[in-house]
UniProtKB/TrEMBL annotation:
One of its GO terms (biological process) is protein polyubiquitination. One of its GO terms (cellular component) is endoplasmic reticulum membrane. It comes from the Eukaryota. This is Uncharacterized protein. It comes from Phyllotreta striolata. InterPro entries: RNF180. GO terms for molecular function: ubiquitin conjugating enzyme binding; ubiquitin protein ligase activity.
Length: 118
């Protein structure tokens, strides 16, 4: 699966392998599950994280907003790469599932896959 997440702007590593392993889709399941009839998954522009084992830089940004909601910035170049929302209530397109609290915008990050990409 994925081994690393980098910032697309400064190209520095942001999340390591054990952290990107925790990514879930809009239905809170791992990516290798069957695609479902939900726009948030089919055309998903985000990847999601729950609050299990977050890196210190991300906890700092969430702590600064008292675990409410806010923007996530790259710890290296401060570019905006995602959002967090612990107030909740945000659902996916089919409205069956509540989105995980932390989301990264795919166009702002690079997900590096395991193995060589040809
Ligand atoms: Zn950056
Ligand atoms: Zn859905």
């Amino acid at each position: 699966m994925y081994k690393e997440m980098k910032c697309k702007k400064c190209r520095k590593a942001i999340l390591n392998e054990s952290e990107v392993k925790q990514f879930v889709d809009a239905h809170n399941s791992k990516f290798d599950s069957d695609p479902e009839e939900c726009d948030s998954i089919r055309n998903g522009t985000n990847v999601y994280l729950t609050t299990y084992k977050l890196p210190a830089w991300l906890l700092d940004q969430i702590d600064a907003e008292n675990w409410t909601k806010g923007k996530i910035h790259c710890p290296h170049c401060q570019n905006k790469i995602g959002t967090f929302d612990h107030i909740g209530g945000q659902k996916c397109s089919c409205a069956k599932y509540e989105l995980a609290p932390i989301s990264f915008v795919k166009s702002k990050i690079d997900l590096i896959k395991n193995g060589t990409s040809l």
